[in-house]
Every structure is written in C-alpha cells, then in structure tokens.
Amino acid sequence: MNSASRxxxxxxxxxxxxxxxxxxxxxxxxxxxxAATSADPVAHTEADVVFHLLLLAAxxxxxxxxxxxxxxxxxxxxxxxxHATGERPGFAATHRAVLDAVxxxxxxxxxxxxxxxxxxxxxxxxxx
Length: 128
What we know:
mainly alpha, Four Helix Bundle (Hemerythrin (Met), subunit A), transcription
C-alpha cells in the first residue's frame, strides 16, 4: 500500500499506458469545475475531491480504487477545513501542473508536480 501511494509510483501509473484520453478529459473537466467554484467552499470541496478521485481512477490501480471510499471521506473532511477560508495561494497552479504532466505522459514531471501538490497541502494544513 505504501509504495502504491508514493508520488513516483502514482505518477508512473498515471502517465504510462494505463491512463486514457477519457481519463484526461475527465480530469480537465474536474479542474475546470474547481476553477469555477472557487468562491463556494462546499462546491469547491466537492470538485477538489472529485479531481483527486479521478486521479486515482486514472491510475487504473485496483488497490487504490478499492480505497476510494476511505480516501474520499478523508479528503472531504480535510478539504472542508482548508476551503472554508477561501482559495489558497498556489492551489490552482499545483493542480494544473499535475494535470498537465498526466496529459503529457511525463512521469518525472508528474512525480515532481505531485510532490509539490503534497507540499502545498501540508502548508495549507499547518496554517489552519
């Protein structure tokens, strides 16, 4: 489980032959919904959770997909706190970087983008 959730392994799963054009299109739509709902903490939280669940689904990793319900609950609880104070600096850019790397099929860039996203999440949480 631990190695399946590491950014390198997640990035590899997302950008290798497993992710489809449909996965990328769904991620694009989810990202656009996040951008469109940034002023509404409830809708923004839902959109953020959907984006991350679509990342899991795009990996086509059965183990991660089995954990979807648990992960969704944890993300939802965390994001309700984070998004209650408005959009965080760097939020859109870190998510866009992950999406762009997945679309480009670049595992090294995807790994770096995911690490940046996790680092931003830690900063957001520590400021609560």
